[in-house]
Write a structure and sequence with these properties.
heterodimer; A: 14 helices; 77% helix; 0% strand; B: MetI-like fold; two-stranded antiparallel sheet; 2 strands; 65% helix; 2% strand; disordered N terminus
Chain lengths: 347, 322
């Protein structure tokens, strides 16, 4: 297992390098970040010169990248143009807030998606299944910013104005004066978490339904049924455990999508996390923050993918023997094809 | 689900048709018959037909009906931020412009962009997918690793930064503003081709093992001709389905980016940036949020319905089941 993890980490190194080159190229292509200070009377020629030197902007592009990557790895993320705070502190605070948001979302979204997926697979074409299908269409097609705004409208118009209930907040993390109060925090978190959950639950429940259906037609499930294993036990022990394996991967692959969702949700709800930090950094041309943000986001996505592989390895012993996810996928596919062929034989 | 991603099955499993490929077992004119059958199946798909009708309606409204709507720039300052009325069906915005007219004009920009993205991603995805699936080996490994990385990238932040680069010069081709409709079409296409590439690769992997490819090779067809004449025509079903879904994705990504202010910039209306200003006083002007948002939602929903109908129509097994 340790060798397996080591190999995944090793493969991740060139991926991270490539991705950081790409993001550095993108950010550099926006132009010299000190240009906007050129006509600013508060910046002397000397200050500008020092700034350009600090960010290695006086060097050729390739060297700029190497210097930046070196600084980044050593933890020297410079200070923000906009707030004059150390970038590492800003990213640290934002990362914690976003982890809180994403963590809560994951717990609820994963449980809900599993529940919906399993029930609609077991009761295929039932009223519940059709309802779940309708819901996933809704989730797939709803732009998350619009959903967030609708939630805000609902809270303001219906809950507060019509019913006079003030339980949910539409902006920020805490109300002024209630910092540290857990109940107040929860009242602020409901709407952002609901918005983030919408797309995830729609996609993941569909996925879980499909993979559950695949497993339910497998030979060993039929064997179990023939042996007289109780239905609930077949679903929990034989089917769900196997259908969970691909589910984990999908959740991890969607990490990048979730990051995009975080940008939208945090901007709309004023949640002081990574998404809002990105929004501010890009709006203010905050070069050091932007670079650090993109690098942290890339690493986050790559780590999520490695975590998926490791979990996959833990859940499915075949992978540790054969090495790659792909060979397992092939094995699964062959099993599924056999099942399909078997199902095609007229009963 | 995993069956769609890739198919390395050999000749023995050639019949299993995993990527929703058109069956080619028919002896006489297989493709013409296949398309007719798919069309029939699509027409019977009620939800997809409703979606299609709605899309036709939206297109007609945006590109024809817009002539009968009030001007999107005309201001009647006494009527600023008025709710919906007979004169202004969707109300007026903070500059007293007719919101419906702005939605229709924004629709022109967004819909053109979405269709452009669907076409461009199809070209890129088919090229990469077909080459990877047909030649296999290290070419496949390299291209698919790259695709995996590309799909894993956090699309929205990368796009936002790319758009903010602004105008780039393309040498002899002139220059393109990455924040304009054309530039965004190109950027979105460069980011969204992954799913099509995977589908085409999966289909190609199984098609290249079929007898008619062997036959073509026996009579001396070149690889390029085999891909072009024998493999790709048989992937048209899955390609069409995917291109449709890309339209939905492109609308969502464009409107999200523009909503955040990182996409198409305000003098040019788009479905996303119509909602940007609405957010600041959402409590007083709900119609500036609800109407444009609902139009985006319903259009994307209709595209997804059509995509699903196409998928069922091209996959004979699904019809038997459903």
């Amino acid at each position: 297992m340790i060798r397996f993890i080591g190999r995944r980490l090793l493969v991740a190194v060139p991926v991270v390098l490539l991705a950081t080159v790409l993001l550095f190229a993108l950010v550099s292509a926006r132009g010299d970040p000190t240009d906007k200070y050129r006509n600013d009377p508060r910046f002397s020629q000397q200050t500008l010169h020092n700034l350009r030197h600090e960010f290695h902007l006086d060097k050729p592009w390739a060297e700029q990248y190497v210097d930046w990557a070196g600084d980044f790895v050593q933890g020297d993320w410079h200070t923000s143009f906009a707030t004059q705070q150390p970038v590492s502190e800003m990213v640290g605070t934002a990362l914690w807030n976003t982890t809180l948001l994403i963590g809560t979302t994951l717990v609820f979204a994963v449980s809900l998606a599993l529940l919906i997926g399993v029930v609609s697979a077991v009761r295929r074409y039932s009223a519940f299944d059709h309802l779940a299908t309708g819901f996933s269409y809704f989730g797939f097609s709803m732009p998350d910013f619009f959903f967030a705004l609708l939630l805000q409208l609902f809270v303001v118009y219906v809950l507060q104005d019509a019913l006079g209930v003030h339980v949910l907040y539409v902006q920020g993390k805490y109300s002024v004066g209630s910092e540290g109060d857990v109940v107040n925090l929860a009242q602020h978190m409901v709407l952002p978490v609901l918005t983030l959950m919408l797309t995830s639950v729609a996609a993941w429940s569909r996925y879980q339904r499909d993979s559950m259906l695949e497993v339910l037609t497998a030979d060993y499930v039929r064997t179990a049924r023939a042996k007289g294993v109780p239905r609930g036990q077949i679903i929990r022990r034989h089917a769900l455990r196997n259908a969970l394996v691909p589910f984990v991967t999908v959740v991890a692959i969607d990490a990048g999508v979730l990051l995009g969702g975080v940008v939208v949700v945090e901007t709309v709800f004023g949640w002081p996390g990574m998404g809002l930090l990105f929004f501010d950094a890009l709006s203010n041309d905050d070069y050091p923050v932007l670079l650090a943000w993109m690098a942290v986001a890339t690493i986050f996505v790559v780590v999520a993918n490695i975590a998926a592989d490791v979990l996959y390895g833990l859940l499915d012993p075949r992978i540790r023997v054969q090495g790659t996810r792909r060979s397992v996928r092939r094995a699964e596919r062959e099993a599924a094809e056999a099942a399909t062929r078997a199902a095609e034989v007229p009963a | 689900m995993s069956m769609r991603v890739g198919d390395e099955s050999g000749r023995a499993r050639a019949e299993s048709n995993d990527a929703g490929l058109a069956p080619t077992a028919t002896v006489r004119s297989p493709r013409g018959g296949e398309w007719r059958r798919a069309l029939r199946a699509f027409r019977r798909h009620t939800v997809a037909m409703i979606g299609l009708c709605f899309l036709v309606f939206v297109f007609l409204a945006c590109f024809v009906g817009v002539r009968f709507a009030p001007s999107p720039t005309e201001q009647s300052l006494l009527e600023a931020t008025h709710g919906p009325s007979w004169d202004h069906w969707f109300g007026t915005d903070e500059l007293s412009r007719d919101e419906l007219a702005r939605v229709l004009h924004g629709g022109q920009v967004t819909l053109k962009l979405a269709i452009g993205v669907a076409i461009l991603t199809t070209v890129i995805g088919v090229l990469i997918g077909a080459v990877a699936g047909f030649y296999r080996g290290w070419v496949d490994e390299l291209l698919m690793r790259f695709t995996d990385l590309w799909i894993a990238l956090p699309a929205l932040p990368f796009l936002a930064v790319a758009v903010s680069i602004g105008t780039v010069s393309l040498g002899p081709l002139g220059s393109v503003d990455l924040g304009g409709p054309l530039g965004m079409t190109i950027l979105l296409s460069l980011l969204l081709w992954g799913s099509i590439a995977r589908v085409v690769r999966g289909a190609t992997l199984s098609l290249r093992e079929r007898e008619f490819v062997d036959a073509a090779r026996t009579i001396g067809s070149t690889n390029r001709r085999i891909i072009w004449r024998h493999v790709l025509p048989n992937c048209l079903g899955p390609i069409t389905v995917n291109a449709t879904l890309v339209v939905a994705e492109a609308i969502l990504v464009e409107s999200t980016l523009s909503f955040l202010g990182f996409g198409i910039q305000p003098p040019t209306p788009s479905w996303g940036n119509l909602l940007t200003n609405a957010i600041s006083n959402i409590e007083d002007t709900w119609w500036l949020v609800v109407f444009p948002g609902a139009v985006i939602f319903l259009t994307v929903l209709a595209v997804n319905f059509v995509g699903d109908g196409l998928r069922d129509a091209f996959d004979p097994r699904r019809q038997v089941r459903a």
